[in-house]
Write a structure and sequence with these properties.
13% strand; 39% helix; globular; 322 residues; TIM Barrel; alpha/beta
């Protein structure tokens, strides 16, 4: 495993981040395909054994049970001081007033709940899951800064939004002497590259680490275009992200993978890891082979012609994932 600094911070993270939305109690979430604790723990252990030290979850994943499963596994298998643990806040956790969003009340309340579920005293990377148009950005940034100063959070990050929104948040923090975001978790893969227009140049300029979610396009880059899985059959959100013309990119991945004699997932992840702004793709793993492919991709070097072939068929997409 290779390790790099997260953005301009001094914190070391593995080049693969294990995305933990895959783990949770199915009956307590919107995802029927999640793995329960018995199935999840060996995968978390495998990731640790492979050198992964970076784990990403969210309060909303499976109604909080993802945090509970991840917290218990890491407590049993890892040294907390060596782990970089990330979670998120914003999405609805309960009905009624103050059950979602980025108000001071919501941010502080949900952090305490996340700390309890994860069984830890602090979060290494606390991320806003989306932009909140209903809360002043000053309120959100000051609340996050106060959590850092209280020692409950080490660093803060953001996720899918427009570049002008991210820039506004960073400027607001700087103007008040508050903590700035050190990472951007955004939708970025071979099929969806709209982030290259504004967000990635902004992150490069500001020294912000990029943590792409859905780096394999919900598995589209790992299988024949018309193939369905248990997850894809019920993934309503994922069904809105891509278009039929994207199959030509999948075909390019298939050709290069065949020439290299490696799985398609390794080629798609290797392309992403070649992008200079990318710190660590957030990879979900439901099978041991998913982790094996992600780890192998770190050392897979693609040639210039291979990268050109992978990129050639891309066409503009509507903004998706915000």
């Amino acid at each position: 495993m290779q390790y790099v600094k997260l953005g301009s911070t001094g914190m070391d993270v593995s080049r693969i981040c294990l995305g933990c939305m895959t783990y949770g109690v199915p009956a307590r979430g919107a995802h029927e395909w999640t793995l329960d604790e018995t199935a999840a723990r060996p995968l978390i252990r495998q990731a640790l054994d492979a050198g992964v030290n970076f784990f990403d979850t969210a309060n909303v994943y499976s109604d909080g049970t993802s945090e509970e499963i991840v917290g218990r596994a890491l407590r049993d298998y890892a040294d907390r001081d060596e782990i970089v643990l990330a979670t998120k806040v914003h999405q609805p956790m309960r009905s009624g007033p103050n059950g979602r969003g980025l108000s001071r009340k919501a941010v502080m309340t949900e952090l305490d709940h996340s700390l309890r579920r994860l069984g830890t005293d602090y979060i290494d990377l606390y991320q806003i899951h989306r932009w909140d148009p209903h809360t002043p950005v000053e309120e959100t940034m000051e609340a996050l800064h106060d959590l850092v100063k209280a020692g409950k959070v080490r660093y803060i990050g953001a996720s899918s939004m427009y570049a002008w929104q991210f820039s506004k948040a960073q400027y607001t923090a700087e103007a008040h002497g508050w903590t700035r975001f050190v990472s951007m978790q955004n939708h970025y893969n071979l099929i969806y590259r709209e982030e290259e227009r504004e967000m990635l140049p902004l992150c490069a300029d500001q020294g912000v680490g990029v943590l792409p979610w859905s780096p394999l396009a919900r598995g589209r880059l790992t299988r024949d275009w018309d193939t369905t899985t248990d997850r894809s059959a019920t993934d309503r959100f994922g069904g809105t992200l891509y278009q039929d013309g994207d199959r030509t990119i999948v075909e390019a991945v298939t050709r290069i993978a065949a020439e290299r004699g490696v799985p398609r997932a390794q080629v798609a992840l290797a392309w992403l890891l070649h992008q200079p702004t990318v710190t660590a793709p957030i990879v979900g793993a439901a099978k041991p082979g998913h982790i094996e492919d992600a780890v192998a991709a770190v050392d897979l070097v693609l040639g210039d012609k291979e990268r050109e072939e992978l990129e050639r068929a891309y066409t503009a997409h509507p903004v998706a994932g915000h």
